[in-house]
Amino acid sequence: MVGGKALDGSRPVDGYLLASFPWYGLDQSFAGPRWLMQVGTSADGTVEHGALGHGDAPTLKASLPMADPAPDAQRFAVVVTLAHRPVRSSADGTGVLDATSESSAAWLAGSGLLSCTWPQRMERSLRQDWLEQQTAIAWELADDLSGPAWSTLTLPVDGVPTPFRYRESEYGWVLAGSAQGAHLGAYGRGMSAYGLAFAVVRDITAYQG
User: Fold this and answer.
1) What is the reported pTM?
2) Alpha-carbon dihedral of residues 108, 36, 22, 146, nearest 10 degrees?
């Protein structure tokens, strides 16, 4: 698995520009809004991963008090790019961390989906327990991509048919796979994963809005 912290910068795009790997997003067939999210860095400040949004920016705010948003009220797909790192040094420099993998990308995507889709009708006192429980489940699922919770979905990446591991839940969908130079994860809601196509982002500043 992989962690990281947000990179502070004068502009949201600055962290993306520091990455040594290509960023992936939806290809040009997607004509909707595109927006930057956040990058994650290692202890030494190296950019490790980041996410790019497409469609409606997800929000936890419901239209009515204590009411869950309708499943199709928000239509979005977020693409997570994770650097391919066979060997990573630990924060203190005394050892190495696990290599990044498709499971790492699945975990980032699964936790990203949870962060923007929790039930609004749930009492506030119970939400943290729910989030911890669902986070643990997402971790276990990401660590078992060959398990029964996942199916195979083939989608184009730069025009090349590429296999992904895919799962659905009542909160949305998550998928994970690998591309040239990076591992890919994605999550969304209200927008079908079956018609998506991914591509290297040629101009990351186009996501600034």
Assistant:
1) 0.84
2) 20
